[in-house]
């Protein structure tokens, strides 16, 4: 709990350390820990990212409501999918450039892609 409170600049202090809200904070820690562990297949970055994004979404929900958390999650997903799309375009461009370069350098080399 102290680690996540430091990451969020003491914004979750009321939730994690308050005598009234500590049960909500402990439930958030447990649920977000399970959520984080489900993303272990993404590696260390994905594991850590899901932990932080999960608490960020929880903070948005507790302060601004569930519709705001849903909208911020949709925006986050849009950014991630857009970055993957751009990455795919760049990789295809590099691959086609590589095939064109090798086929002109070696006329007997057949394209396998």
UniProtKB/TrEMBL annotation:
Domain of life, per lineage: Eukaryota
TM stretches of this protein: 40-60, 66-86
Keywords, ordered alphabetically: Membrane, Transmembrane, Transmembrane helix
Record's protein name: CPBP family intramembrane metalloprotease
């Amino acid at each position: 709990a102290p680690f996540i409170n430091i990451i969020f600049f003491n914004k979750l202090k009321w939730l994690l350390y308050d005598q009234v809200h500590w049960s909500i904070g402990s439930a958030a820690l447990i649920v977000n820990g399970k959520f984080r562990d489900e993303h272990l297949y993404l590696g260390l970055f994905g594991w850590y990212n899901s932990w932080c994004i999960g608490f960020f979404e929880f903070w948005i929900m507790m302060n601004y409501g569930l519709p705001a958390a849903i909208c911020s999650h949709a925006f986050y997903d849009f950014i991630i999918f857009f970055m993957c799309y751009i990455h795919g375009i760049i990789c295809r461009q590099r691959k086609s450039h590589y095939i064109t370069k090798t086929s002109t350098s070696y006329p007997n080399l057949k394209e396998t892609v």
